[in-house]
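We were asked to recover a plausible sequence for a given structure. The inputs and outputs are reproduced exactly as logged, with field labels preserved.

PROBLEM: sequence recovery
POSITIONS: 100
GIVEN STRUCTURE:
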C-alpha cells in the first residue's frame, strides 16, 4: 500500500484523462502550484511523494504550457498507465482508504 501522500497525488492525477499526456495546453491543476493547491499542501511538500512516484514509474513529469499561467512553460505531472492501473486495481478512492 502506498503512503497517504502518494495515494492522494495519484487519485488527484487520475481524475484527468490521458489525452492530456501529450497536450501542449494543460489545466493548472497538473502544474506543481495547481496540484499543491488542489491537495491543500505547500508546493515543497509535493517533492518527496512526486520523486517516489516517479521512481516507481507511476507518474511522469514534463514541461508544457499551463492554461492561464502566462507564456512560460512549467513543469506538469501526469499519471502513467501503471499509476492508473494501481488506482483502479486497489480502489485507492478516499472512502475506500478510510475503510481499509
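RECOVERED SEQUENCE:
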Amino acid at each position: 500500500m502506498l503512503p497517504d501522500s502518494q495515494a492522494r497525488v495519484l487519485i488527484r492525477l487520475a481524475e484527468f484523462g490521458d489525452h492530456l499526456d501529450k497536450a501542449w495546453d494543460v489545466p493548472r491543476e497538473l502544474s506543481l502550484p495547481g496540484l499543491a493547491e488542489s491537495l491543500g499542501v505547500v508546493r515543497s511538500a509535493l517533492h518527496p511523494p512526486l520523486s517516489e512516484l516517479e521512481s516507481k514509474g507511476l507518474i511522469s513529469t514534463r514541461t508544457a504550457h499551463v492554461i492561464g499561467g502566462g507564456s512560460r512553460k512549467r513543469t506538469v505531472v501526469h499519471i502513467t498507465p501503471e499509476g492508473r492501473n494501481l488506482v483502479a486495481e486497489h480502489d485507492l478512492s478516499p472512502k475506500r482508504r478510510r475503510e481499509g
